[in-house]
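Summary for the steering committee. One of the milestones for this cycle was to obtain a three-dimensional model of the protein with copper (II) ion bound, which we needed before selecting residues for the alanine scan. The sequence and ligand used are listed below.
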Amino acid sequence: MSKILSTPLPRRRFVTGAAAGAALLGLSPGSVLARSPQRQPGQVPELRGQRFDLHIAYQSVNITGRDALATVVNNSLPAPTLRWKEGERVHLRVHNHLAADSSIHWHGMILPSNMDGVPGMSFAGIKPGSYYDYTFDVQQSGTYWYHSHSGFQEQTGVYGAIVIDPAEPDPVQADREHVVVLSDWTDQAPEALYARLKKQSHYYNRRERTVGDLWQDLREKGLSATWQDRAMWNRMRMSDSDIADINGLAYTFLVNGHSPDDNWRALFKAGETVRLRIINAAAMTLFDLRIPGLEMTVVAADGQNVEPVTVDEFRIAPAETYDVLVRPSADRAYTLFAQSIDRSGYACATLSPNSEWQAEIPAMDHAPRLHHRDMGMDHSAMAMAGAAHAGHTPNPATPSGDMNHGSMNHGKMDQRDMSRDVDSHAGHGPPAEMDHRHHGMHSQTVPPDAPIAPAGAGSRAVISHPASENNPGVDMQAQMPANGLDDPGIGLREHAQRYGRRVLRYSQLFNLGKTLDRRDPERELAIHLTGNMSRYMWSMDGVMFDDAEPILLRFGERLRIVLINDTMMTHPIHLHGLWSELETGEPLRIPRKHTIIVQPGSKISYLVSADAVGRWAYHCHLSFHMPGMFREVRVIGGAA
Amino acid sequence: MKKVAILLLGSCLGNTALAGGKADPMLGSVIINELERRSDQRESAVDMEAWLGHDIDKLWVKLERSAEAGSTDEAALQLLYSRAIAPFWDLQTGLRRHIDDGDADNALVLGVQGLAPFNVETDAALFVDDDGMVTAEIELGYELRFTQQWILEPEITLIAHSETDRERSLGSGLAEVETALRLFYYPQREWAPYVGLAWHRTLGDQRDFAETAQSEQWLIGIRGWF
Ligand SMILES: [Cu+2]
């Protein structure tokens, strides 16, 4: 236990990570502690090999200028980068020095269920003062990460990168590489933030509509358009500026543990190809990342190689990873700029041939507002207000006579009817009717006689809402969910026109190799992401995890999961233990991901091969959505 | 009455045991809606609430009190079991003890509290007292946001009685209307000082008992929660 320092490390030593080691070995503390604008934040320590000892402990840190308590691994925030080799067996002894149960989950790893690290599901958790031995074969390569799956420990610092070198020569060639771990830090206890959201869910929204906004809309759009635009929000008692539950008011956004003031540095030589392994380890923050002056070639998503696609900007949700190649030809510094989805703050770092140089830090983009499509209303129909709507594809179940959104009168629509009578109304609304009998019900399977679309292009099934959604914990339903595949996301949709930036869309991701499991899905599972924004409740199909039955998969089966987002928030959904094969249109090139962004009011589908027996967690990766928006997926029937 | 109180408490504790999940921790909050001084006869008024419980089930306490020049004039304390029945609505039931110039009476309460479409804050309740008198009270408020800090809140309260009670100076029908306009400044989300104007009117049979049918007052006060 001597490895664990019980005394707090001063800021400078702590935040510099690897450099701290040198400092502790006898460099004069004065030179280390001095805070100067030229200082160079150090690298996160990297551990290599097959045997690892990881110690989870409390640590005093100073990230915002004030001391705060973090939970960290081996005295480092982020935790040390683990470097593995594909095909090798790794042994990781994880010691818990906290006063509470702990755990480590190896995010994105394909491994036996009892090594997955989810307390209460894969194992009992690691008791205070004890350890757990994780042992598994590394069967994949690429960029992944690890984090605690206990309480809110991930949010307070237990997260780190995993880099796995491939057994075969890497198809991605680079002259050098840097790991970039994005995260959000708060000095406050996560439990306190969660309680605050339960009491006043709009607490962190400082862009609520004002009389001034209304006046501006009236002048620009006129009375009737303004009315049409505002009426829905007002009837639904929602705000179009609810983009992030928690934002820069509470969080400092970090790159490799460093605040924007620190401005973490990464070096290159002009002309080199640099591989950036970008991991979003934030608790609650989606980032939009770009490097002004450099185009980025996305070569891997969630650790898996994809056909290279060159973009200027991409959104990365908590738990996602992207590997990009950049080729800085000029002898100058560049800023890696990751702004939060609601533009309340940013994380940044500098890529530079010279550690003294810095580039300009760009201004944040305009703050997005939600639109009707984000509430599951049909986008094209809205744009064609009142006009004939030949040309767009309505939900097949929706009689075209009801498609005229432009003149749709919400006031006349009984909300009860709207939620009940799904197929006849192309609208949305709060489910007003209570039905507790269905609380235990889990996700519905599309009837066996319904034709299931072949692998590749996604689901053609009719969207219907389970009765279990009709409860006080669900405040809206997407009746005409938009296609989430081709949507770069809220706040990014206009970036091509507005800024001339190419923004990555999921529909551009194609696996570099051939799809391994070429079977068509045998069945479809539709799961609705649900919640009540003002009560701050989150669930799947209207049922919170505590009240939910496990989702059962037969070992060996190939199925399609369709996620429908019946909320106004963006949810990154993570399935443990099995790949989520996102259907981007090309059956032989289906990209494998572990975390899928589901845009508000949208649907998206992916294939799953139930090839690993056990109990697996399935949940939204936003820390404060996870407790409720969570399911157990149990793969049964095969040999363990 | 005692029985009801025990029942309410029981249901709250029972739920605590069942819903111990991380998603739904037991939380509590104290909300001071209004703590204000009024221009008339140095009158002061308090309107505060507190709750304890989970997402769906909560125990609520509501206190309203108005005093004139230091002595308590009128106070009402409610103890309520609150259950979420719809996305934006809670059903609240329990007891109210009402004290007016030293006379106390108890009533059963059945009410709804929540957010109506167009973001109208609503608190509506029926009070049935020992003598079978039914009083209906509805309070509606709306936040008009000038900036993220400056908020104007119009509020209207209506009170009606089912019958006339001479002893207690209550007249049947719609009896009282109070409208108030308060301008808040929020330096933080948690609290705000405000100034306002209230306009009170006595109506119908209630007029027979009122000293003045109509009054206007300036207000100065503070609102907060934690
Ligand atoms: Cu979520």
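Key point for the committee: Residues 428 and 460 of chain A are 20 Å apart (CA to CA).
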